[in-house]
TrEMBL record:
This is Cytoplasmic protein. It comes from the Bacteria. Pfam families: DUF1697. It comes from Paenibacillus glycanilyticus.
């Protein structure tokens, strides 16, 4: 059985699309997903299954709509894919240290996309890269580094308009999901 991580977009944000994690775990266990666990309230679900990504995504999205009445997009990565994301940060130690020193809070994020964005859209995104806002796309994953807050970032806004469904997680969450996936695999 493969450990998968389902990342829900836009739940429990600003009082909208509220889903209790216990209810979500129960709903997904009821459709046959095994070892279901969640991490924080923003919709990070770890589980095991032998089904392929497209089937899992469809089943999870359908179940969330049935049970909670919400049309939520789901991005899925395997534990191996999430480990690769964490291991392949494209930014240098110096860049990360400089961003951490100038930023209040998180500075490194990964936008995980349903599919690779078109190259012309990525080229347009490069116009918003600056000394204070950097990005690097690796397949379906877009790494974002901010020396200032993500909240007022033009790059972050434009990254949302790449024409593919995505959801963003900060670097701490990425690494925590890797640790949780590793722990799940160790038990198997």
């Amino acid at each position: 059985m493969t450990v998968h991580i389902a990342l829900l977009r836009g739940i429990n944000v600003g009082g909208k699309n509220k889903i209790k994690m216990a209810d979500l775990r129960d709903a997904l266990a009821a459709i046959g997903l095994e070892d279901v666990q969640t991490y924080i309230q923003s919709g990070n679900i770890l589980f095991t299954s032998d089904e392929d990504e497209q089937t899992l995504r469809s089943r999870i999205e359908q179940r969330i709509e049935e049970v909670f009445g919400l049309p939520i997009r789901v991005i899925i990565r395997t534990a191996d894919e999430m480990r690769r994301i964490a291991a392949n940060c494209p930014f240098s130690a110096e860049q990360l240290a400089a961003a951490a020193a100038s930023e209040q809070g998180e500075s490194l994020y990964v936008s995980m996309m349903l599919e690779e964005p078109l190259s012309d859209r990525l080229e347009k995104l490069q116009a918003f890269v600056s000394e204070e806002e950097l990005c690097h796309c690796e397949g379906r994953d877009l790494y974002l580094l901010f020396y200032q807050s993500i909240r007022n970032s033009k790059l972050a806004v434009k990254a949302e308009k790449l024409g593919v469904h995505s959801t963003v997680r900060n670097w701490n969450t990425v690494n925590k999901l890797v640790a949780l996936a590793n722990a799940m695999e160790a038990v198997k």
